[in-house]
Every structure is written in C-alpha cells, then in structure tokens.
Design a protein that fits this description.
441 residues; alpha/beta; five-stranded parallel sheet; 15 helices; 14 strands
Length: 441
C-alpha cells in the first residue's frame, strides 16, 4: 500500500514528536518522521508532503538552517513550516511560518495545519489564475495589504487578568470590542468583521467553549480563530478545549505579552487568508465567466485545468477533478420540455460557486453539466466534496411554474485524481466514465 503522508515531522527523538505524530495520524493528517535533513529532503522528493513541523528544542541552533534547507529543496511547491518552541517576535526573515509552544496538542496542530496548507494552496492558485486570465487580457489584482488595527472580539467578564490582557493587545495595535455574553458575542460576529476572538475561560469556561463550538458549526465564522485564556486550574481540560474548536490557548501562568503576540499572530494569518480569498474571487467580475452561472466557461476551464495539471505534477501535489451532471429522472422530463430545469441552472451554478473553496475552480461544461478542479485534494476528499455539494443542492426546491409543486434535482457524480504524466483531458474522461458507471448502477 503506498504511503500518503501529508506532514513531515523533524525531530531527533520521539519525546515530543511521538505523541504528536500519533495524534495527527488519528485526525487524518498522516505523518512521517525524519531525524536529519537528508531524510527530510528524501521524503519531500518522494511524497506529497503538505507541511512540516520541526522540534526546535531537539536541534537547537540548527533548527533555522534546517527549515531553510527543506524549503529550498521543495522547489516551486510552497511548504508551510511550523516550529515547536518558544514563540518569538515577528521576523520577516524567519523560515518558520508559525511557532507554537510545547506541548503541542494534535487537535491544535491540525487546525493550524489546515489554515496554513489552505493558504499555501490558495497562494499557488492565485498565481496560476493570474497567468490564465492574463493570457486573455484580464488582470487579477493581487492580495490586498491592509494597514489597519487588528479587529479582535473579546468575550467574557471584565476580570482583572482579562482586562490586563486586553490592554496588552491594544498596545500591540489591536482594536478591541467587548462582549460579556455569548448572545452579544454572536450578534457582533454577525454584524461586524473580526480577525480573532479572545475568550475568557475564568469562572465560566463552558460558555467560552460553547462559543468556539458555535463558530465551528457556522460556515461564515468557521475560519475565524478563537483564542482561549484559561483561568486558574484550567490546564487539565486542554484536550476538550482543542476538540471544541479553540485555535490556541494560554494558561493562567503565560505572560500577557506572549499571549497578546499569539493572538495577534492568529489575526495576522486570518487577515492574509481573507485577502487571498478576495483576490481569487475577483475572477467573477473579470468578464470571462459564464454569464448565467458566474462559473468558469468550458474553454476557460480547459485552459486553466491544463495549467493546474502541469503545476500539480511539477510540485508533486494531488489534484482531483469532479464531473457533476443533473440526473435524468423521469419526473423531470416535462419540466425539461417546458424549460423549468433550464431556469433553475443559474441558481444551481451560483450555489456550486458558493459551496466550493476559494482555491477550487468550478466550471459549467454544458447545459446541465458542471466540473470542479480541486488542488491539493486526493480522490476520497474530492468525492466527499462533490457529494456534499450534491446533497446541499438536493435539499433545494426550484420553481416549476403555477399549478405545479416545486421540484428538486439530483446529480450523477464522477471523480478522478490526476496521475503522473496524465493529461487533463484524459483525467476528465476518466471522471466522466465513472459518472456513466454511477448512472448505470
């Protein structure tokens, strides 16, 4: 069975890395461990590694050079590198994308890995999309660089320690909005834009965790990082804290200045992630998209998929394609004849565009046929994404005209992962063939 490791862990021993690797494996972030730079470079060359974690304590002063080496050996592929060690002040020349204090909980690492990997994938997609649109005389503006105060929502009772931490954040350029209850917090989150949420886990830690869980259940709030400041005696609940959706946590003994830096780091990463997504979404106003649905046209998709395929093979990244076609159910025949299905297609296409990630490419290939290109996505995850889209649209009722009940649609789905040296056309053919197989079954 081939090894599909996603995370490279560099550590001289397993005192810290062993439990982390085991936990990440359980959470779906398959790991491989290397003891030296030569083993690390070999793993990066052979496997589709998406990120690296370095135990800086075990390498000492060599850790920075090690990070530089593995990034340089990775070629054009962007490799996020997380350091496990003492957080430092922001350094533009640092090879580490993020530094997290030990001990690092697997759920905490998984959340940060998801953010870093998605951002790296989105950066590569923006570069490729810019080239595709430039060939057609359109300019996609780069990601915005915003020089505004960090927008932080502070949720909790005005305890002295929490107020002191809030003041430390203000000294680092943050603009804070205070909310005393969960109801007020969610009102603010739905009305204003925030780049991080600071939760006070003093006397009412359950409410703080409920807020974090609620954010993770909301698609619009899902990516906003939530930082929990524990009160005295809260250290024993770390496992529950991270599994409830908290991005990072500080104990009561953590210095306020260090805690403030970690909150700002979360906000900085989120701001950049949002700026990349906005830049990618500017493609919709380029004038090249399908007028009815706002998706990539067939020709534009073909050109971009060719560029995506070459990039994935060059970077040794996974790339999957999906084909979704409206199922030919007997009860839809009269609605097709009368044009009601055609009238529903623009809404269906618009829904597809909102249900995919910003770094994914969604296209309309035909009157009732759509396609997706999903970078850094293996076939199992691609099928799950396509089925999720089909399930959401399948719950939507479309107008069938006066005197008729609304109708729903279903999709036939075909998925393929692009193989080494395979052409994008051949991959789409394989996905379409599987669509036919699914229809026949």
């Amino acid at each position: 069975m081939p090894l599909h490791a996603r995370v490279l862990i560099l550590a001289r021993d397993d005192s810290l890395a062993g439990a982390l690797a085991e936990g990440l494996d359980r959470l779906g972030w398959r790991t491989i461990t290397a003891r030296n730079v030569y083993a690390a470079i070999a793993a990066l060359g052979d496997l589709q590694i998406e990120a690296a974690i370095i135990d800086t304590a075990s390498y000492g002063d060599e850790a920075r050079d090690l990070a530089f080496h593995i990034k340089a050996s990775n070629g054009p592929r962007r490799l996020p590198v997380i350091a496990i060690g003492q957080p430092q002040a922001p350094d533009e020349n640092s090879p580490f994308d993020l530094t997290l204090a030990a001990p690092l909980h697997a759920a905490q690492a998984a959340f940060r890995l998801e953010t870093l990997v998605r951002t790296a994938t989105a950066q590569e997609e923006l570069e490729l999309r810019t080239e595709t649109f430039a060939e057609r005389g359109r300019v996609l503006e780069p990601a915005d660089s915003v020089a505004e105060p960090w927008r932080i929502l502070a949720v909790g009772e005005p305890a002295p320690r929490f107020l002191s931490l809030s003041n430390a954040l203000k000294r680092q350029g943050a603009e804070l909005v205070g909310a005393f209850t969960a109801y007020t917090a969610f009102d603010y989150l739905h009305e204003q834009a925030f780049e991080a949420v600071l939760l006070w886990g003093g006397d009412n830690q359950a409410e703080a965790l409920a807020i974090a869980s609620g954010m993770r259940r909301n698609t619009r709030l899902y990516h906003i990082p939530a930082f929990l400041q524990l009160g005295p005696g809260g250290e024993s609940t770390l496992s529950e804290v991270f599994h409830r959706g908290v991005s990072d946590v500080a104990t009561f003994e953590t210095p306020e200045a260090q805690t403030a830096e970690r909150v700002i780091e979360l906000a900085r990463a989120y701001r950049y992630q949002v700026s990349i997504r906005k830049a990618l979404n500017r493609a919709r106003s380029s004038g090249l998209m399908d007028a009815a649905t706002g998706l990539f046209t067939r020709d534009l998709f073909a050109a971009h998929l060719a560029r995506l395929t070459y990039s994935a093979q060059l970077r040794n990244r996974a790339l999957s394609v999906c084909v979704l076609r409206l199922a030919e159910r007997p009860e839809l025949l009269p609605l097709r004849v009368d044009g009601w299905v055609d009238r529903a297609v623009p809404q269906i296409g618009s829904m597809i565009s909102r249900l995919v990630r910003a770094e994914d490419t969604a296209a309309r290939l035909g009157p009732e046929t759509f396609a997706l290109a999903l970078p850094s996505t293996r076939i199992q995850a691609a099928r799950a994404a396509a089925e999720r889209i089909a399930a959401v649209i399948g719950c939507t009722a479309f107008d069938a005209g006066e005197g008729r009940p609304p109708f729903v649609v279903e999709f036939d789905i075909g998925v393929a992962e692009i193989e080494a040296d395979e052409t994008p056309g051949r991959a789409l053919e394989r996905a379409a063939a599987r669509l036919q197989q699914a229809k026949a079954s």
